[in-house]
Amino acid sequence: MLKVIDVDFVSDHTLELTFNDGYQGYADLSVYFKKTPFSEIKDFKRFSLTRDGSLNWDGNELTAATLRDITKGSQKSVELSFNVQEMEAVIKQASWESMMEGRPDILQAAIRSYVEQFGHGQVIAKAGIKSRTSAYRS
């Protein structure tokens, strides 16, 4: 199933997207945000990455397949290197943004992306957590 696994705001209605199959590029969403229901959204930057890899703005979603169709980019090799320091930095940043914006979904999406990419077992082992139960509590 195609999913967006990383998204960065670039400018206006343009996002830089990375998909789970390694495709990366830029998507200009201005055509969508000129029409309802998206035209009613006040803050383009206030979106979330859903569990199924879509983007959501206040209940209005664009699926990964739709986003892929309009993304101009290229296929990159899917790199599965596991860098604990990088993971820690991403989780810290997501935690900070989550608290500042009052949006727990930001932190949840960051954690979920690592778990989906590497699996529970590897994330737990690399993080030095003793058991899955401890992982869920922490």
Protein architecture, described:
This protein is an alpha+beta fold and 138 residues long. It folds into two domains: 4-75, NE0471 N-terminal domain-like; 84-137, no CATH class. It has helices at residues 64-70, 84-101, 104-118, 120-127, 132-137; strands spanning 4-11, 14-19, 23-28, 48-49, 55-57, 60-62, 71-75. A four-stranded antiparallel sheet has the order 1-2-3-7, covered by helices on one side. A three-stranded antiparallel sheet has the order 4-5-6. A hairpin with a 5-residue loop joins strand 4 and strand 5. The longest helix has 18 residues, at 84-101. The radius of gyration is 16 Å and the shape is globular. The model has no long low-confidence stretch (mean pLDDT 85).
Q: SSE order in H/E notation?
A: EEEEEEHEHHHH
Tell me which CATH architecture of the largest domain applies here.
2-Layer Sandwich
Counting structural domains, the number is 2
Q: Give the integer mean of the pLDDT values.
A: 85
Termini distance? 29 Å
The count of helical stretches stands at 5
Give the beta-strand count: 7
User: Helical content, roughly?
Assistant: 25-40%
Parts with pLDDT < 50 across at least 5 consecutive residues? none
Order of adjacent strands in the largest pleated sheet: 1-2-3-7
Helix/sheet category: alpha+beta
Main pleated-sheet profile? 4 strands, antiparallel
State Rg: 16 Å
Beta-sheet strand percentage?
15-25%
CATH class of the largest domain: Alpha Beta
Q: Based on Cα principal axes, name the global outline.
A: globular
CATH topology of the largest domain: NE0471 N-terminal domain-like
